[in-house]
Design goal:
By secondary structure, the chain is α+β, with helices and mostly antiparallel strands. The protein is 37% helix and 27% strand. It has one domain. A hairpin with a 2-residue loop joins strand 2 and strand 3. Helix 1 packs across helix 2. The longest helix has 16 residues.
Length: 67
Amino acid sequence: MSDINQIAVFEEKNIRRIWHQEDWWYSVIDVVGALTESSEPKRYWSDIKIKLKDESGIEPYDYIVPL
């Protein structure tokens, strides 16, 4: 099952994912959209990254990047 692209469905929301190196990798933007029901999940994710950096000094880009 290498490099298989599939769509996962969570509460009727499509979430892009890919099988890579024996793990599923999910689209952060799609997950944020499904969990927050935001009309602009990319903007929501951007605001979260800024807030995390300001409040804790954590740079999410070092750990999580959008697909």
